[in-house]
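Reviewers of the previous submission asked for a worked example of the structure-prediction workflow described in the proposal, so we include one complete record here. The input consisted solely of the amino acid sequence. No template or homolog information was supplied to the procedure at any stage.
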Amino acid sequence: MNGMTYCQSCGMPLTKGTHGTEHDGSQNNDYCLYCYKHGTFVDDCTMEDMIAISLQHMKEAGILEEQGKTEEETLEFLNSFFPDLKRWKKSS
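From that input alone, the workflow returned the following structure tokens.
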């Protein structure tokens, strides 16, 4: 493991300057600034919505091409990756 942390909502790698914020302006270490601002989630969406949004961003950013993945392969990965993220994990 390379120590990379990912947004626990959208799966984006969290790097310096991409972390979300709490109500007091402090950094949140679980979520990115696109998903979480001022202590709350930006969008009220389902995991399926977020997967579709992420897939679209990855396509537009050329990430699929870069990784040599098809849309179907990427969707399969996202569908297995997202249920483990904190925001979407089902509490048992």
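The first strand starts at residue 5 and ends at 6. We consider this example representative of the routine output the project will generate in years two and three.
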